Amino acid sequence: MQTATQAMPALFLGHGSPMNAIEDNAFTQAWKQVAERIPKPRAVLCVSAHWETRGVGVCSAEHPETIHDFGGFPQALFDVQYPAPGDHRLAQRVANLLDGVPAHMTPQWGLDHGAWSVLCVMYPDADVPVVQLSLDSAQPGAFHLDLGRQLAPLRDEGVLILGSGNIVHNLRLLNLRDPAPADWALRANTTLRDLIVSMDDAALAEWRKLGPDVALAVPTPEHYLPLLYVLGARRAGDKIHIFNDVVTSSLAMTSVLIGA
User: pLDDT band at residue 3, thresholds of 50, 70 and 90?
Assistant: First the structure.
């Protein structure tokens, strides 16, 4: 794997169940393949569905803890540690890039499972520094899309901008006994995927106007919003690669690689 000497891509991963961190399946194999396909980043800026704050926060911890922010899973998952270092200078750079948006730097966070469950598959040696950026999920989609645009220069600095969530994520309607995709979930995934490919970021930022299927797909915004940061970092001429385009019950693993 080469080290980044050119603009890094941006990446949105449908992270799904935390169990993906310790399972070998088609989704994790695709994450590994992406890591092999792109240059190795000097650092990762991760926007995860699982760190919501009032205002914008940036984790500045030198040694971010592995946060096991879930329950009801096997002990083997709680035993996972992902000791990737932090990067205080990158955290400060992120705060400086956000024009007119105060960013609160704090060491009082770590790597939640939206971050480490995918990164431990992509970079199992935990040798790439990771900084997390929080979600102010009370803000409209255009706010998050604009933050992605402001953070885009990081791509020229060897930083992988990584969004981790799910574009279809309705756990209330998840049927663990029958993995067949719900009709509405398939339609919502197709609608959102087609808008991503057609680069209609304005429509994606206004997802609440996309009809009843998408309303079911995004009952709360936190798993959807990380996508907007990745789309905001997109540049003219960037290629778009859709992968893990699979819907199980009421959850889509659809993932997006931009610029590679």
Answer: very low
Closest CA to 44 of 98, 118, 100, 101: 118
The neighbour count for residue 212, using CB atoms within 10 Å, is 10
Of 4, 27, 1, 3, the C-alpha closest to 154 is 4
Structure tokens at 159: 């930083």
Structure tokens at 160: 């992988």
- Rounded Cα distance, 114 and 166, in Å: 10
CB 133 within 8 A of CB 154: no
What is the reported pLDDT for 4?
Answer: 47
pLDDT per residue over 230-246, tens digit each? 999 999 999 999 999 99
Tokens of 226: 């990380």
Q: Where are the alpha helices (DSSP H) in 168-224?
A: 183-197, 201-205, 212-217
pTM beyond cutoff 0.90: yes
CATH architecture of 10-258: 3-Layer(aba) Sandwich (3.40)
